[in-house]
């Protein structure tokens, strides 16, 4: 199994607050890993560190993606090399239409990789196919990014971006939060559509319900800045029944 992502003894902070305290994680190509844990454990911090958010500082440890240390890479470089982050709270970008945003993102990544821009007609057909896949109104492409969208529409729009960009490593931070059952199914279908032997997904979630639709290969419990327990899908069901207290007491 090719290791797409290898994290060793990762320590990271925001400001003076150390949040990740010796985290280890190995993700193979073709795998889906679910990260669960109590509030304040460091789940969102891990996502943002992987994406290259500037406010989060790695103080020690290594992050190797496709065999290369990416600690010094910018968020833009990581995105161009195939790392995608879906945000827990997607932001609105007034004045920038979804279509403009998607085209700029795709062509910026192609340029970083030394590839030509995608032809306009090809790009339009590609995006429309993905919009249909996410059961979205095509008129949303002309609206500002996430502007006036409901919570569920914002999350579906995030997955649309993922489908269009076709990343290698998808880091989805509580993509299921705020979704009703219909939206959860559509978002889950989008995530499952990206599953392939060349890609991997990290799902940060509090709840079993997402994992009923997106079957993980591994489930990890993150607590106090490090992974304290790992297992298969059955671990998520055990956490649903017992909570996290039994692990903290162990």
Low-pLDDT residue spans: none
Helical coverage, percent range: 25-40%
Q: In the CATH scheme, what's the topology name?
A: Rossmann fold
Largest β-sheet summary: 6 strands, mixed
Strand content: 25-35%
- The ordered H/E elements are EEEHEEHEEHHEHEHEHEEHH
Number of domains: 1
Structural class label: alpha/beta
Distance between the termini: 32 Å
Annotated CATH homologous superfamily: P-loop containing nucleotide triphosphate hydrolases
Short description:
The protein is built from 9 helices and 12 strands.
Description:
With 250 residues, the chain is an alpha/beta fold. It has one domain (5-249): Rossmann fold (3-Layer(aba) Sandwich), CATH 3.40.50.300. The chain is built from 9 helices and 12 strands. The protein has helices at residues 43-51, 75-80, 98-112, 120-133, 151-165, 181-193, 208-213, 233-242, 245-249, and strands spanning 3-14, 17-28, 32-36, 56-65, 68-69, 83-86, 93-97, 144-145, 169-173, 200-204, 218-223, 226-231. A 6-stranded mixed beta sheet has the order 6-9-10-3-11-12, sandwiched between helices. Strands 2-1-4-5 form a 4-stranded antiparallel beta sheet. Strands 7-8 form a two-stranded antiparallel sheet. α5 (151-165) packs parallel to α6 (181-193). It is globular. The model has no long low-confidence stretch (mean pLDDT 91).
């Amino acid at each position: 199994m090719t290791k797409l992502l290898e994290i060793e003894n990762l320590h990271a902070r925001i400001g003076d607050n150390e949040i990740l305290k010796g985290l280890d994680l190995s993700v193979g190509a073709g795998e889906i890993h679910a990260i669960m844990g109590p509030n304040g454990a460091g789940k969102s911090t891990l996502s943002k560190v992987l994406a290259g958010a500037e406010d989060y500082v790695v103080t020690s440890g290594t992050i190797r993606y496709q065999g290369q240390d990416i600690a010094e890479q910018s968020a833009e470089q990581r995105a161009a090399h195939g790392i995608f982050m879906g945000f827990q709270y997607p932001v609105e970008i007034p004045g920038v239409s979804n279509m403009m945003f998607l085209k700029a993102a795709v062509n910026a990544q192609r340029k970083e990789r030394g590839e030509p821009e995608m032809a306009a007609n090809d790009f339009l057909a590609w995006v429309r196919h993905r919009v249909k896949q996410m059961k979205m109104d095509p008129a949303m492409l002309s609206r500002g990014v996430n502007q006036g969208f409901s919570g569920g529409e914002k999350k579906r729009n995030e997955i649309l971006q993922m489908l269009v960009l076709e990343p290698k490593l998808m880091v989805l931070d509580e993509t299921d939060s705020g979704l009703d059952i219909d939206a959860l199914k559509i978002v889950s279908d989008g995530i499952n559509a990206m599953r392939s032997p060349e890609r991997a997904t990290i799902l940060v979630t509090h709840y079993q319900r997402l994992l009923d639709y997106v079957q993980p290969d591994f489930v990890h419990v993150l607590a106090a800045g490090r992974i304290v327990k790992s297992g298969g899908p059955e671990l998520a069901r055990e956490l649903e029944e017992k909570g996290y207290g039994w692990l903290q007491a162990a």
